[in-house]
Amino acid sequence: DEQESVKDEL
Amino acid sequence: MNIFRLAGDMTHLASVLVLLLKIHTIKSCAGVSLKTQELYALVFATRYLDIFTHFISIYNTLMKLIFLGSSFSIVWYMRRHKIVRRSYDKEQDTFRHLFLILPCFLLALVINERFTFKEVMWTFSLYLEAVAILPQLVLLQRTRNIDNLTGQYVFLLGGYRALYILNWIYRYFTEQHFVHWITWISGLVQTLLYADFFYYYFHSWKNNEKLQLPA
Question: What residues form the membrane-spanning segments (chain B) (predicted)?
């Protein structure tokens, strides 16, 4: 979802 | 993972390795800002709070461990190592951390996606990372002779940020990707801070001169 797509970055 | 993201991560990794190489092999941290390194340690500590509770991939966990471990060991070297710490330019590295930490924290309390502990900490880490390079840039400007490794370290860090922007543009068009204002704007601000440095870096490279920033 929206939250996850950024938090998979470092 | 797209090519820009991977290249960005590898550039980030290279920057850390260059710095560790300088500190570990040459036993010198001349021209390196301890303030910036402490800010990065704080950035990673607050961003990766979920490292052991939220699994994404082995790659992700491994990189997080590397960034946490390297940032704290660089701080350790500069503060505690009996040879390395002698080369630290304490008198020149006078930037006050708190002037960066406090506003970033207050901003994270006000502007965030969700008001939870982890989310506020994550947002704080993004804001702080955006400005964490400032003490290093100030130190570079004061140091008349910037050695190659320090120049390359800052160049690679800036390159990593620029590649992340390309990564976001790519993701925006290829994935069901929403607009992440907080991440994007803080990332953009961070990259713009390097613009001046990049200008002089390329200038010195083109003319085959030693890198010097104007006072």
Answer: 55-77, 98-115, 121-140, 152-170, 182-202
Joined tokens for residue B126: 């993004």
State the Cα–Cα distance between residues B201 and B30, nearest whole angstrom: 19
Q: What are phi and psi of B211, to 5 degrees?
A: -70, 125
Tokens of B199: 């200008």
Nearest residue of A to residue B167, measured between CA atoms: A9
**B148, exposed or middle or buried, with CB in 10 Å at 0-12, 13-18, 19+?**
exposed
Q: Using CA atoms, how far apart are residues B32 and B87, in angstroms rounded to an integer? A: 9
Taking the Cβ of residue B171 and every Cβ of chain A, the question of whether any pair is shorter than 8 Å is answered with: yes
Q: Which pLDDT does position B214 carry in this prediction?
A: 83
pLDDT, tens only, B44-95? 999 999 999 999 999 999 999 999 999 999 999 999 999 999 999 999 999 9
Write down the domain spans for chain B.
Answer: 3-207
